[in-house]
Here is the input.
Amino acid sequence: MNLSLGAGRWWLWSALCVLLLLLLGALVFLARAYEESRLARELEQVAVDMVTEIRSDLSHNVQALQRLQAPRPDDAAWQRGATALLLSNREILRIEWRSPELKIRLAQASPFLPFLFDHMPRSQVQPDVKQACANALRFAGPAYSTSYFLPLQEGRGQELLEMCLPLPDDGGFLVMTYGLTDLLGELQAREAYRSFSVALTESDGTRLAIAGHAARDRNTVEAVHLLELPGSAYTLRVDQARELKGLRPKALSSTLTLLAMALVGMLALLSYDVRKRLQTEARLGEALAFRKAMEDSLLTGLRARDMKGRITYVNPAFCQLVGLPPEALIGTSDPAPYWPSDRVEEYLQRQTSRQAGQPLPRQGFESEYLRSDGTRLPVLIVEAPLINGIGKQTGWMSAVLDLSAQRKIEEQSRTSQERLAATARLAMAGEMASLISHELNQPLAAISSYANGSLNLLQDPDQDSADLRQELEEAMRRIATQAERAGKVIKSVSDLVRRRERERSAVAPQLLFDGIAPLVQLQARKVGIEVQWDIAPGCPPVWCDSTMVEQVLLNLVRNGLQAMPAGDPPPASGLRTLQLRAAPAPTQAGSGRQWVSFSVTDHGSGLSDEVAQRLFTPFFTTKREGMGLGLSLCRTVVEQHGGALGYARHSPRGTRFSFTLPAAL
Here is the structure.
């Protein structure tokens, strides 16, 4: 993916979001302006209605006052009528009946404020009354004075208004005193005006009376209307909060504001989503580029096919294998252009079985492709189903390996193995010849020794004939025994090379020692070495091939004798001895089988570390006449019996070779 293109899309989206927010802001501003103007108009109408109702109430009071005077009442009736009028109209604080000279004939105070003029005599407001009555005579109707302030108890006070009505019959006047605060209070008590704050002010803005508790601030809307009365004029100001508690009268602006907030939230979420999408696309582009680079670098051919067998993807390695470009492969179906013509039917059957749901071999299968140059290419194909994101199979993915190099290596390996087998057969023949000659040396040496001894006996003139006959017979039997042993050695060596199972039986350790004793004693006497035989009491018989075990013992004894040449150790040291011992071996942990240990101990010069490391290596020897097969063959024989052959240094000098054999129990 082009990252600069993604960044450009992001900035374009951001610009559109900002433009949309500006349009929303302008729309909300216009809506609020409309709401403000509508609220101002409504409040202006409320002020007009209030002024109208105040005038109407004042007119009703005038009419009620006129009814009080007609027909001409007596004093008591007038008092009763005035009291009833005061009780029904709390804004009226006092009613007076005055003479043409404005002297008070009758007066009735409001029962709600009976002591209204206790702090200021009524005579002090006579100028206001005179002004109102003079205007009333001029207007020939009711007239109102300017307001004045009347102090009350505890530092309080009230703004009052006088209304004068002329009486045409006797030339007198009816004077009615209004409380401006009570007048507004009666108005504000009505249900339609409870949400407003109402104030009466003079023309210069001086507030005279107020009803309601709305604080004037920037969140308050006001409307002002002129209250004109005969003889005086006042200003009525109506205040209302922009938003009342629990109520949102600005429906349009509120709705638009909520919509704008919701849209801002949506734009924020969309911006976050777009940013995440661009980041994801960038990562996906990087992942696709990485996968493309990885697939292009593979030496393994990759091929994808849909459910109908059409090729949908190949990598460069596959194109190189078959020698065709991707354009010649993608979109092709069966038979594929790289199938050999003589194997098309076979491949079609395999493809049909795969489409029928037959499981694919996990290890893959071998096939053959035809390259564009006409050469055949052995391949290994490993296929797996292609699964999409919802778990549905959409085709197969194949990994194709070129087997031509492997076939060449296998052919070379096969040729090398044949050559190696021929060489091994020659080596085996030489090894058998060396083995037979090595193993036959001992019985042939024994036969030679017995034959030379017999000749010496025949040449002795002092030998008694009876003794001579007996000794010669014994020598002949020994020769026959060694000849028989030589035959068994040849058979045993042949079986050893062929790894055949030999006939085994239970043999007592004493019989094994007796079988080799004559030859051991004969060789030991030649080098002046004493042989010591030791069999532990209760030592059980062993399960073995006696001929092969005797051969092992003879090899170990011969090595021990050769380790002590003449003069080393000197005879006076008492160490020129060779010990052969058989004893029960400790039972191995976890095994209930019993073993017998055989050991051959000499007092030679011992073995160096270098020689000890290669002691059992075939064809390794420190003797000029040796072939290096003795200890190797001994270990082979012992291991075939299930035992183990080892060595250890002996104190004060020498070496102990020991091996184990299974007890015959």
